[in-house]
Every structure is written in C-alpha cells, then in structure tokens.
Design a protein that fits this description.
By secondary structure, the chain is α/β, with parallel strands linked by helices. It is built from 6 helices and 5 strands; from the N terminus they run βααβααβααββ. It has helices at 7-15, 22-29, 39-50, 60-67, 76-83, 92-104; strands at 3-5, 35-38, 70-72, 107-110, 122-124. The chain starts with a strand and ends with a strand.
C-alpha cells in the first residue's frame, strides 16, 4: 500500500495528527508505508492561502521532508486520467488527486465521501 494524502488530511496531520481518523493515522505513522503529497495539494494550499481562504504560513516542502513524505509531481498521464473522469465531483483539485491515485495505484487518504465513487482505494482521513 502507498498513500496519497488529500489536502485536508495533510493539513490535519501537520496541525494535530489526532484529527486524522485512527486507521489512517496508524498507516501514515507506519514508516514501512510510503506516504506522498501531490504538487496539486501544494498548489491548492498556497492558492487558498493567497486568497485568504486558508491560514497557512509554514514551509510546506520542509514540513513534508520532516515527516518523511514524498513529493508527487503532476504529470501528463495524471492530467489525462483526471480529465477523463466522470463529473461525479466538480472540485478540480480532488479530481486531479483521484487521477494521480489511479495512475500511481495509490490509496487516497481523504474524508471526502464523493471520492470513493471513482473506484480508487480510499482510507478515511
């Protein structure tokens, strides 16, 4: 199993890991399970922070490195997969994460109830 954290899961983990549901928290803390954070998530966090919709003042890249999380770049195949998804969910950030999870065969850590409808493995955040 390889994990891909969605934006909320990452923010909860960095702020207070107890905010993350117990099974996901255990998996994220397990050093034998690779955990990735998408460039899409970095874009979403910084976009929302610049619009005043999110308070975030940290150095995301450094915080990820401290946690041992791997950066997941956005690639052309990810974009094609996300763009080909049915419009179950209209949030482009979430759709991009689903596309990445599909292509990379990762388990998406999220609390969004719409995302399992895409058929990707989900671990409830």
């Amino acid at each position: 199993m390889r994990l891909l954290l969605d934006t909320n899961a990452l923010l909860w983990w960095l702020d207070d890991p107890s905010l993350v549901a117990s099974p996901a928290r255990s998996a994220i803390a397990d050093s034998s399970i690779p955990v990735a954070v998408s460039a899409v998530t970095a874009f979403e966090i910084h976009t929302k922070a610049s619009l005043g919709k999110l308070a975030f003042e940290g150095d995301l890249e450094s915080e990820m490195a401290e946690e041992g999380f791997d950066p997941l770049p956005m690639t052309f195949p990810h974009a094609v997969a996300a763009g080909s998804l049915p419009l179950i969910h209209r949030d482009p950030f979430d759709r991009l994460l689903v596309g990445q999870a599909q292509v990379e065969r990762m388990t998406l850590v999220t609390r969004d109830r719409m995302l399992p409808r895409y058929g990707v493995p989900v671990l409830r955040a």
